[in-house]
Amino acid sequence: MPRQDTNGPTRPGPPPTAVCVGESMAVLLPDRPGPLESVDSFRLSVGGAESNVAGALAALGVPSAWISRVGDDGFGRRLLAEVAARGVDVSGVAVDPHRPTGLYLKEVGGTTGDRHDLGPGHSRLHYHRRGSAAAALSPELLADPAAAALLAGARLLHLSGITAALSDDCLALLHALLADRRPGRTVSFDLNWRPSLWRDRDPAVLPPLLDGADLLLLGSDEAEAAFGTGDPAALRRRFPSPATVVVKDAARQVTALERDGTAVTEPALTVEVVEATGAGDAFAAGYLAGTVRGLDQRRRLRLGHLSAACALTAHGDQAELPDAAVVAALLDASPAQWAATRVTATGITGPALVSAAARRAADPVPAADPVRPADRAPSADRSRAQ
C-alpha cells in the first residue's frame, strides 16, 4: 500500500516514543454557530481521537506517530499534511486507492433562538465514515514495514474503542496489537464510546479489549452508557487487569485507581468553556505525557486536566498549553491554589501563578520543563502489569 507525500520529512525529530493507531477524518467546520440548515459555508479541517492525541503529545514534547489509512483523495492529503504539521510522524499511514477518507461535520450551538440550536458551549458531530479507508485496517498492518518499525520502537501504544466499532478487521487488529506484548511498552486504551458506531455492532467485544490494556481511560458517563456503571470502584473491579484505571467524571474530577487498591482523585479546574470537542483527547494526551515523564499520579492527573482545560477554551480539537513556568506552578500548587485556578480563553489566573511569579522575581532561575519527557521508558505502569 503506498504512502502519501506530505511535502516534507515524516521524521523531523527523534524516533517516536508514542504511537497512536486509529481513524481520523476530514472535518467540515461551520462558519457560524447554529443549526446546520442555517450555515452558509464550512471550513475544511481534520480531526480524530488518535491523531488528536498524537498531535497533543507532540506539542507536550513527546515524539509521536500516528498509524492509519486514508483515501487517495484531497481529504486524505489534507489530513496527512495537517497531522504532519503538528510534528507527528505519519510514515505509517497507508493510502487506499479504492476507499475514501472518512468525513464528519461539526454542528456548533449558538444563541440563534432556533429550536434546533444546541445552545452555547455545545456541539454535535455528524459522521460519514462507513466504508472508509481506515475501516480496512487489519492485522496485516503488523507486517507492513513502515508501521512495524514504528510499533517496534514505541514505548507507549495508544488505542481506542472507536477502532473496534469500525469493522471486524479493525477489531481483529486491536486484538493483535494487545496480544503483541513487548517489554518496556505501555499500552493505553481509551473507551471513547460512540453510540452511533455501535448500532449495527455488538459492544460485548469491548470489555476484553479494555481489560487487555496496561492503562485504561474511561469517561464515567461513557462507562455508564456502555457497561451500566460509571462508579470508579465498580469499574476497577470490572477491569482488574490494567495496572491503572483512570475514570473521568466530566467537569468534576478524575480518579486514578491502581490494581493494589490505591486511588488518587483530583478535581477539575474551573473553566470558561468555548467549545467542548477535543477535551477528552487532550486529557488523555496530558495524562500520557505525564506518564512518559514519570510524574507522580496527582501531577499526571493535573497535567491531563490542564491540557483538557486549554482545549475547552479554544475552537477546534487542538490547543496549546501555557509556558513551562505556568505548567510547573500548577502541577506543584497546593489543593487550595489548584481549586482557585480559573482557565478562560484569555488566559489562566490563580494564586499559584501569583506565588510563582513572586518566587521568580526573587530568584529568576528558569524552571525545568515538567512536560518534556525523560529519556527513559514510561513509568512503572508496564512492569506492574506483567
Describe it.
The structure is a single chain. The chain is an alpha/beta fold and 386 residues long. 34% of the residues lie in helices and 20% in strands. It has 14 helices and 17 strands. The protein has helices at 49-59, 74-85, 145-153, 161-166, 168-179, 206-211, 220-227, 232-238, 279-293, 297-312, 324-331, 335-339, 351-362, 381-385, and strands at 18-21, 25-30, 42-47, 64-67, 69-71, 94-96, 103-108, 123-128, 156-160, 186-190, 215-219, 244-249, 253-258, 263-267, 270-271, 342-344, 347-349. Strand 13 and strand 14 form a beta hairpin. The longest helix is centred in the last third of the chain and has 16 residues, at 297-312. Mean pLDDT is 89; it is low at 6-12 and 373-386.
Q: Keyphrases for this structure?
A:
globular, eight-stranded mixed beta sheet, disordered C terminus, alpha/beta, 386 residues, single chain, four-stranded mixed beta sheet
